[in-house]
Design brief:
The protein has about 210 residues and is of the alpha+beta class. The chain contains 4 helices and 10 strands; from the N terminus they run βββββαβααββββα. A hairpin with an 8-residue loop joins strand 8 and strand 9. The termini are far apart.
């Protein structure tokens, strides 16, 4: 699909002044940034001082302006921000526990749009540089209209928060595993830049 075909037609155009590639959310002041061509979709996003759910899509499609930058892949991305558990281990301390968790029904349900573990297949998972990544297929109805059922998700320690980033292809234009993971890495690099962890890590023996 060519860039000019507006692959994110499901997103409502809001005007070029609202096509922002960066947004600061929650009381923890977490800065979420999109790589080249990805902008915040204000119609699909919501946030408050406690938590945030932000959708990033094609800047040109969101703004209704073909002159704006567009992503190199046909995909959308979501970012979820929650406060970190002050008494629990960080993501960087939990790679083995997370790998085990996502193989359980509770873990698969957390990856399902319908909270149904039977709808999820884990295609891959691994830790890298203190983050945890999952490649999953979810056959339940997607929360974002027109989204593909396969996606990459990464979990990150940021300031006093846990951030989950997901990269999702679109029906009829699925993103390859390699392209999806690289796009997630691009989002992660933008997320982690100048945002160190400030939560005091729990000891490795914390359950």
């Amino acid at each position: 699909m060519a860039c000019g075909e507006n692959p994110l037609a499901n997103f409502t155009a809001v005007g070029p002044n609202d096509a922002l590639s960066e947004i600061t959310v929650t009381s923890d002041r977490v800065v979420l940034r999109g790589p080249t061509g990805f902008c915040v979709d204000p119609k699909s996003s919501n946030h408050n001082p406690a938590k945030a759910f932000i959708v990033f899509g094609n800047c040109a499609a969101i703004a209704g302006d073909d002159e704006l930058p567009q992503p190199f892949v046909t995909a959308i991305a979501t970012a979820t921000v929650h406060p970190a558990d002050k008494k629990g281990p960080s993501i960087s301390q939990s790679s083995v526990a997370l790998a085990d968790f996502f193989e359980t029904d509770a873990g698969k349900a957390s990856l399902s749009a319908s909270n149904t573990p039977d709808s999820v297949d884990i295609l891959d998972s691994f830790s890298r540089n203190g983050a945890f990544f999952v490649h999953a297929r979810d056959t339940s109805a997607p929360t974002t209209p027109g989204a593909d059922n396969t996606y990459w998700r990464g979990y990150f320690d940021v300031k006093n928060s846990v951030v989950a980033l997901s990269v999702i292809g679109l029906k009829g234009a699925p993103v390859s595993s390699t392209e999806g993971l690289q796009t997630l890495y691009d989002f992660a690099n933008a997320l982690l830049e100048d945002q160190p962890v400030t939560k005091t890590p729990a000891t490795a023996t914390t359950s």
